[in-house]
Amino acid sequence: MEMHGFGSFLNTYLHRMRAQSHRWTAREPDWAIGALAGFGAGGIVMLVELAFAAAIGTDPWRTPRLVAALALGSSVLQVGGYSLEVLVAALAVHYLLGTFFGLVLAALMAPFRLDSSVVMAVTTGIVFGLLLYLFNFYVITSVLPWFAEMRGWVTVLGHIEFGVMAGLIYRMLERRR
Fold first, then answer.
1. Who's near 10: CB < 8 A, 6+ residues apart?
2. Do residues 62 and 53 make contact, with C-beta atoms less than 8 angstroms apart?
3. Over the chain, what HEC string results?
4. pLDDT, tens digit (0-9, with 9 covering 90-100), for 13-40
5. CA of 123: how far to CAs of 23, 82, 86, in Å?
6. HSE (CB half, 13 Å, CA atoms) of 58?
7. How far apart are CA 80 and CA 92, in angstroms?
């Protein structure tokens, strides 16, 4: 009799686990929250990068210049220090890219229910950040060679930070359907 009770419990548990598995379910992403997650994660990464550069004594405006060069051209890389034009261009490009990649992450998370738990959101964010780093610094550098100087662990960690923050923000704010 007790085996029947345990068997029934096990059957119910396994059925529930199958129903919540990370499989394709064609669930539509929450696009607005995906954009917001990318925008917010991009802002967090930018602030941490500026603080880190200032803390270790490197030029905090070097990374914004590299990003601004996407919009203003490589001539902005020839000068150092603060420039309002460079800052505005860097912010615009950085937030635009962050928003775009937040949408990409949402498009990956929703159909496979990778937002079903904090652990899944963080794991997905880590993998996404690593893939984004590889794409940015080993594919895009063939077209924009000035980004090659940023290859390294600090930039890898920044991209992982972006992925994790975007994944968590998406999970926390997503309107469940």
1. none
2. yes
3. CHHHHHHHHHHHHHHHHHHCCCCCCCCCCCHHHHHHHHHHHHHHHHHHHHHHHHHHCCCCCHHHHHHHHHHHCHHHHHCCCCCHHHHHHHHHHHHHHHHHHHHHHHHHHCCCCCCCCHHHHHHHHHHHHHHHHHHHHHCHHHCCHHHHHHCCHHHHHHHHHHHHHHHHHHHHHCCCC
4. 666 656 555 555 578 999 999 999 999 9
5. 16, 36, 34
6. 12
7. 19
* Tokens 């669930």 sit on residue: 27
> In which residue are the tokens 């499989």 written?
23
Q: What's the token pair of residue 139?
A: 């594919």
Q: How many residues does the chain have?
A: 177
User: What are the phi and psi torsion angles at 121 (to 5°)?
Assistant: -65, -45
**105-158 residue pLDDT tens:** 999 999 999 999 999 999 999 999 999 999 999 999 999 999 999 999 999 999
